């Protein structure tokens, strides 16, 4: 799909840079208050740095992932997706 992530870069302060299959690119920022429940392990910088792309989806170990379609829509509109 056009919203498949093909490039991922880890930035500082819970931020990722991504590029999609159609060339759209932007940032994903996690606000600390969002890191609860399944996302709680991302509070650990060492765990956060284990981000990878699996089948076009930004993922982490333990089956943590981000919805690429929602990410794409927000980045297309605003240049970044802020998870709060």
Explain this structure to me?
By secondary structure, the chain is of the alpha+beta class. The protein has one domain (5-83): NE0471 N-terminal domain-like, CATH 3.30.2020. The protein is 18% helix and 37% strand. It is built from two helices and seven strands; from the N terminus they run E-E-E-H-E-E-E-H-E. The chain has helices at 45-48, 68-78, and strands at residues 5-10, 15-20, 25-30, 52-54, 57-60, 64-65, 80-83. The strands form two sheets. The protein has a four-stranded mixed β-sheet with strand order 1-2-3-7. The radius of gyration is 12 Å and the shape is globular. The chain starts with a strand and ends with a strand. The model has no long low-confidence stretch (mean pLDDT 96).
List the defining traits of the structure above.
single chain; alpha+beta; four-stranded mixed sheet; three-stranded antiparallel sheet; globular
